[in-house]
Amino acid sequence: MASTTWQRELSRRPWWMNLVFAWCVVLAIGVPIEVALRPLAEDVEVVLGIELYGWAAKATGGLHAALFMAGAWGFWKMAAWMWPWAAVYVFQVALAHLVWSEWSERGNGWPIGLLQAVAISGLGVLLWRARPLFRHRPG
What we know:
The chain is mainly alpha-helical. The chain has one domain (2-133). It has five helices and two strands. The chain has helices spanning 2-10, 15-37, 54-77, 82-103, 110-129, and strands at 44-47, 50-53. The protein has a two-stranded antiparallel ribbon. Strand 1 and strand 2 (50-53) form a beta hairpin. Helix 2 packs antiparallel against helix 3. The longest helix is centred in the middle third of the chain and has 24 residues, at 54-77. The two termini are 19 Å apart.
């Protein structure tokens, strides 16, 4: 019975969206733990491709956690408000990878950042085209 319910739930989304949903769940759990446990002096978060440290990293880590929690909930419910915001978020992540790879001392340089941005943008395109899948559902 539970297996059938779970299969029915997963069938509401394409396989790639189930992976995005699972990734949001993992990060919704992991990011708050990381924010809480990582020492202030070692905390780093990346926002729009720019590294933030210390209290700025803690604050934006909390924001990231909230975004992943909202994403997990939105994908679980296939909520209408997820479109276009999931795609917009993924496109900004693609841009952030490009910026980070060039500006950060730890970055990989623009060719790798460009490849990452293109690959991540592919997911953004899939999410953008998935508008019909996002609609309000009871429960």
